[in-house]
Amino acid sequence: MRDSALFTAVIEEALATGTNVRFRAQGTSMSPTIRDGETILIAAVSPDEVVRGDVLLCRHDKRVLAHRVVGVTTHGAARVFELRGDAKAGCDTPVGADDVVGQVIAVQRDGRLVGLCGRGARLRHTARTAASCAKSLVVSTAIILPRAIVSCWPRRFFRDDGLRI
Hints:
About 30% of the residues lie in helices and about 30% in strands. By secondary structure, it is of the alpha+beta class. A hairpin with a 2-residue loop joins strand 3 and strand 4. The mean pLDDT is about 85.
């Protein structure tokens, strides 16, 4: 998202005083949940409250990223979060609880706030993911299945030039 240490420091200071922060997201890694240029709302969060499906704003190298939690583990007493952008195939490098800046609680879309935390938001994400997987399956089946049928079709149903009778 952003690569400015000053930007991150300002967000952290505001969140520490209990103020929610809004800014425009950059990039497409969280599409369609967060689209490029949309305003997102960040709130402070305790790492102990983070669950799978939440969208976190985390320090990642020299920038901050807003990505979805796909796994939570513990190493000793420390919690570690595995994050991935909704539009990405692979996960980011895991981040520790100290790298969590805040939680993305909403996105402003078409003049209204769409909540990104809580059970309803996680259900919407799960439904959207299932629909996307089903669409991919249908598309790949539509490509592969006709070839498989033709290759298994008895030769007596084809003319010498390979066309179906």
